[in-house]
Design brief:
Elements (H helix, E strand, L loop, with lengths): L4 E8 L6 H15 L4 E8 H7 L3 H17 L8 E4 L5 H10 L4 H5 L2 H12 L10 H16 L4 E3 L5 H18 L10 E3 L29 H9 L18 H7 L4 H12 L4 H28 L1 H30 L7 H12 L4 E6 L5 E6 L5 E5 L5 H11 L6 E5 L2 E6 L2 E5 L6 H15 L5
Parallel strand pairs: 1-2, 2-3, 4-5
Antiparallel strand pairs: 6-7, 7-8, 8-11, 9-10, 10-11
The structure holds tryptophan.
Length: 451
């Protein structure tokens, strides 16, 4: 099996992205997603947005703008899985399973919650004044986002590191309680990009909406120009040498320029280029870099139905992972179909003799499927869909009676047939040798154990 690194991150949909968001998060994430080794899951964290914002229009607008920004910036939705959190009902469902194992004491220690409490206490108010359960449970929802897709790496800002650690903690606890030796959840790691630009805003402090010092990204050329004209500079007159290393205007320029362009701009500043002209250069640069995506952005915003379609496709891709996985987790905690129960009991017995493990689950359309896992947990087969648990059960039985197996290889995978009907498929393997080894494992796994 290919082992690409799964990279997952969410964007809370409460605002309109500005130049700082673009350089600091959006652009690097889009670049990272082009690495052939990356399997990227990027999503709009709109359930998280509801925790911070009770203005429906703002939520609606922000989701649209953020989706359009990422696509206009060059995100390739064929390559990555791009979706809205709220389109994945498995997320809130997993949130509940995790809520039931998350220690309250752990959540008491969350920075964001503690900050609210500290502030309340300072003001002589009830410690929990104004604290919703949404805010309190914020880290559990985020853990569900991450664990649902077994992300390896989670690119986030420093303020989010604790949340990723909590996801590990909660995931580990779930694994321990219900995994029976199997690790359901991969332990995620926060990825802090040190090299990524934190852009200064108009006044030189970090560009941030809360400082009201941002440069708009895709609104219009005029608005960008107006903002640039408000960049604070020192009072050196045209003709006087400027100090590029102490100029946030230069820092902004550098974040979008090639090294050659930066060098040229630096020497011009040293030679006394006036600030007015310098702002012009910055505008020209940003406009040439961002003019095209800006146009794409406006085209996208004008066709919300297209955006909707793309996000629905993304949701479908995400749910192709989430639905079967959640079914497994439901099984694990005991939320099992009454019909499939006999199956599970049989499976448990098999495990005791270290045979293969059939794990059956129910699809959304209420058909039944099963996986065959080798003794070491490797997935050998994923079955086709069966109308009911009984049929699925019969197929697993038939596979184990010791008849010669009808295995058909195709490319780097294979399928298993019973009476001229394909009943299950293997995953795609790295190469034919890996495929053949898996077929061998399968044959051994399905050979009846002498008891
Ligand atoms: N809490 C994150 C933030 O505010 C957004 C987010 C939600 C997220 N779910 C996530 C980030 C999962 C990474 C992974 O920035």
């Amino acid at each position: 099996m290919t082992t690409r690194t799964r990279i997952l991150t969410g964007i809370t949909t409460t605002g309109t992205p500005h130049l700082g968001n673009y350089a600091g998060a959006i652009r690097p994430a889009i670049l990272a997603s082009r690495d052939s080794n990356a399997d990227s899951f990027y999503f709009l964290a709109d359930y998280h947005a509801l925790i911070k914002c009770d203005d429906p229009l703002r939520i609606q607008r922000s989701r649209l703008e953020i989706a359009a920004t990422w696509l206009a910036g060059g995100l390739d939705v064929e390559r990555v899985t791009f979706y809205r959190q709220s389109d994945i009902p498995e997320i809130p469902e997993l949130t509940w399973l995790l809520t039931c194992v998350a220690a309250k004491g752990l959540l008491n220690r969350a920075h964001a919650y503690k900050a609210s409490v500290d502030k309340n206490v300072e003001n002589g108010e009830d410690p929990d004044a104004g604290v919703t359960m949404g805010l309190y449970s914020y880290p559990v929802l985020m853990a569900a986002d991450i664990l649902m897709f077994n992300a390896h790496k989670v690119p986030v800002g420093r303020d989010q590191i604790q949340h990723v650690e909590m996801a590990r903690d909660i995931g580990q606890r779930f694994n321990h309680l219900f995994g029976q030796g199997k690790e359901f959840f991969t332990m995620p790691e926060a990825l802090i990009e040190e090299s990524v630009a934190t852009l200064p805003g108009l006044d030189g402090r970090k560009m941030s909406k809360s400082y009201d010092n941002t440069i708009p990204l895709f609104s219009s050329a005029k608005e960008m120009k107006d903002a640039i004209s408000r960049i604070v500079t020192d009072s050196r007159a045209p003709g006087e040498a400027k100090d590029p290393d102490n100029s946030h205007l230069f820092t902004l320029f550098q974040a979008f320029a090639t090294p050659a362009q930066s060098d040229e701009f630096r020497s011009e500043l040293l030679q006394g280029l006036g600030w007015g002209e310098a702002k012009n250069r910055l505008f020209q640069l940003l406009d040439s870099e961002l003019g095209e995506p800006r146009e794409r952005y406006h085209q996208l915003i004008e066709r919300p139905a297209d955006l909707e379609d793309m996000l629905q496709i993304g949701a479908k891709k995400a749910r192709a992972v989430a639905t079967p996985f959640l079914n497994e987790l439901r099984e694990a905690v005991g939320l099992r179909s009454f019909v499939a129960q006999t199956q599970v009991a049989a499976t448990t017995k098999k495990k005791a003799v270290k045979g293969p493990r059939f794990v059956s689950f129910r699809e959304e359309d209420s058909s039944f499927r099963f996986r065959l896992l080798a003794a070491d947990g490797e997935q050998l087969l994923l079955s086709r869909n069966f109308p009911d648990g009984k049929t699925a059960g019969q197929v697993t039985k038939q596979l184990q009676v010791g008849q010669p197996l009808d295995v058909r290889s195709e490319d780097r995978s294979f399928s298993v047939w019973l009476e001229s009907e394909c009943v299950a498929d293997s995953p795609t393997f790295a190469d034919n040798a890996a495929r053949d080894a898996a077929i061998e494992t399968l044959r051994i796994a399905l050979t009846p154990v002498q008891e």
